[in-house]
Structures
1.
Amino acid sequence: MKFLVCISQTPDTTAKISFSADGKEFNAAGVQFIMNPYDEWYALVRACELREALGGSVVALNVGPASNETTIRKALAIGADEAVRINAEPKSAAFVAKQIAEYARNEQFDAIFFGKETIDYNGSEVGAMVAEILDLPYISYASKLDLNGNAATFERDIEGGVEVLEADLPFVVSASKGMAEQRIPNMRGIMTARTKPLKVVEPVPFEEQVETVKFSLPPAKAGVKLVDPENMDELVRLLHEDAKVI
């Protein structure tokens, strides 16, 4: 079995977010970056588990500059056998999907894994785009994945129950909570990650169809208003006049 796990680098959840003066670029100064948790905890770990059970290899792939290689090495420390970095600054979901799909097209992967979304843009777009470009089945938000020969069985949570799906290999899947449990790289993994291959690939041409007009921060939250429990008239007034349903 040959598995591809697509990983993204995102700001740490505690990072202070700001943008350039013109609002068109994220200000990365002083920001700590991490591997996107959904890619790390669920997609990568489940691919490693399947490799351990069935044999084969796990390739971690990232679209990004050389500064992302620390994050890529963490994927190798967790268990990926090799890594690929497509040497380009991600500009849009479509750009990233095109780069991943063109790399994967001739590599004969049995499954392509994504986390369900990234914690910065929360778009859930790239996996579906890759599946469309490669004309492969796409299963989103999967919480369980089992392989039996050339067939795969998936589960995903839906309102009021669990949906069970089946697909033949190869396929594209986005992994959600329940797919696997987080792994902490051990010392052996960290040491061997230094010698595992990390291949750099140049991007394929792509005509960008979107442009970032402006980033903006959400409005600041209003302060908490305390109401005397005996003053129901004031509470009703605030609910009618001040409360907003978002």
Note: The longest strand covers residues 57-64.
2.
Amino acid sequence: MKPPEEFAPRHRFLPLAALLVGNAALALGPWFVRLADSGPVAAGFWRVGLALPVLFLFASREPAPAVPVTRRMLLTIAAGGVFFALDLSSWHVGIGYTRLGNAALFGNSGSLILMFWGFVAWARWPKAREWLAVLAALGGAAILMGRSFEVSTQTLVGDLFCLLAGLLYAGYLLILQDARRAVTSWRLLSWSSAAGVPVLLIVALLHGEPVWPHDWWPLVALAISSQLIGQGMLVYALRHFSPLAIGLALLTQPAIASLAGWLAFGERLGPIDVLGMALLAGALVLARVAGESTDTKSADTTLA
């Protein structure tokens, strides 16, 4: 007897392929930001703005929210969009000063920051696996930032901007925690993105950046790879996997970003750099596993 279609091997393979392709597409985002001849924050404006019509098209095909969307919820989503815009602003500025592998790791530190927030909010000490994540994160971050300081103080500043981006993204997730239970994934992403677009433009102008590019292809590629393919593949894939699998797939991002940095910009990694990245990446995986019971996972919890 032929197995049901939903259990056919090719259909079981699709979520895994989507997860890997989504992470690979997101990993190329920092490379396109470097190539853009607009400012870095302006690149974030175009990343979200160019993708916004497609996001709303996807949102229009989702079922209506299970509960009425109140004005308070819309304001909450708008506030989350502001945090998302500030997160992208900080991350894109940091990309210009540090190595692409560092940017991918520190930019995705939201899971670790949420875990630290949970210790404070719940007034409890870490458990054994969480202690391991804390120690690995502190060790990895210390190695990477120390190596950045050896290269240049600007490189260290870039790491700090990317770490600030992870902090802002954790705030975005916390703000939208209740909305994620009531609003479908594409609606939430499109509404919060719409709120963030004007913020990105204002920050770019205040930063004195050139907004209108001469060469459009890096910005179009950034919007397609990060906002549509990356986010789109993850919206489809994340519901099929445990936090451990998601965390392990996340490790492809710094690996691909580091490879792009080496090939395009000559950013070579030594054994100590690899150790620091391995420690911090392992901490991210452990943080996602430890956060499984806190319901912090959503369809858009991977930043880059």
Note: The radius of gyration is 19 Å.
3.
Amino acid sequence: MKILVCISKTPDTTAKIAFADNNTKFAADGVQWIINPYDEWYALVRAIELKEADPSTVIHLVTVGGVDCDPIIRKALALGGDEAIRVNADSHDSFYIASQIAEVAKKGNYDLVFTGKETIDYNGSSIGGMVAELLDLPYVSLATKFTLEGTDAVIVREIEGGEETNKVALPLVVSCQKGMAEQRIPNMKGIMGARSKPLNVAEPVAVDALTSVASFELPPAKAGVKLISPDNPEELIRLLHEEAKAI
């Protein structure tokens, strides 16, 4: 079996967010970059678990980005990927990125394509569906469990108010979320081995981006907390009626 895992570089969740060039670009100075957690903790680790169950499984990683993505993809190799492909392009357009991933997937003849359900910076949750459409493959989103039964995949996914179980023939595309696997930390053997694993750089195919960033905007600052004495329930009721906002 061949598995392609999509990897994205995102800012650490503790990074201070700021923008530059009249709020049209993310200010990257001093930002710590990580593997997108949904890609790492759930998509990649589940692929590694499948390889542990069947050592003949091959795991390839793909990312779309510049040379600054190399440390991120090397960490993914250290966790357990066998080989990586970096498409040498810089874009935040989902269709453009999905098109580059789909091109890699077409050439690799993969049985499975795993993505995280979304990235923690843009929260678009669109790459998996676009990749599946471009490859003309079935797509299951928001997967929390994944098992194999021969050439079929049994996938549990979240739906409104419950869960849904799907049985789908390979090949297919799956987006992964919490429940799919548990986070792992690279060990020293993996870190040392990642240095010699192939990291291939591919030039992008010609695709027109469908979106562009007009501007970024920080959310409004949170209002201060108001403390109400337990002896003054009338004031609490007044505030709830007049100032509290529905969530």
Note: The chain has one domain: 2-218.
4.
Amino acid sequence: MIRFLGVCVQNLIICIKYLFGGNQRLKTVISQAAAISYDSLPISLVIAFIAAAVITIQVSKEFLMTGAEAYIGGTIAIVMIREIAPGFVALAIGARAGTAISAEIANMQVTSQVDAIKTLKIDPVGYYFTPRIIGAAITVPMVVLIAEFIGIAGGMAVAHGTIGLHPARYWHSVWAWMSTKDIYVSLLKACIFGGLISLVCASKGYETKGGAKEVGTSTTRAAILSTIYMLVADFLINLLFYIAK
């Protein structure tokens, strides 16, 4: 894992040089952004809604018993914005789009398409990786922002349906507890997670050698590694912004 992390850092440096070299086309970035984030939007929103609904069911009864039902909205908002929305959305995108990136690049590698690009004096790392990393880093925060709203609104619907909490009390608690810092950190997480998933999955696919069997193996390992690196990054970001003040 440490060796592969070094490979990912080297690939990231190549992508930055490729980007600032003026070689990247906007059309390619937009197409990759659509494939990564837009196509993953439905499943991401469903996961956000279900997660918020489950958490609301778990806490509503306990809060009602202690007379703290007015704080349900704030609790759901904090949980969704700080952790659930960016984390679950990133996992959904990694499972869907990240594995697709790894499989696509691995297939290019085993079918010698990467070698063909090299004969044209084009850096395959910059050419294949850069639009995917940029597209994910820009658009995953947008998906997370929508997922946060859907999750909070879903929590309101479940709280109203289960314990009869008035929506006005719910939203008053949301606005009282939510801060702009939480939103900024959430979007920063989403940006890092998106770029990290694309970088890790593309790097793992690029290392593939052999045939069709190795493509499947690389795709599986890419999903595992991207999840591990994402969770480590999540821990470090939380440590930086919420503990090490």
Note: The chain has a mean pLDDT of 89.
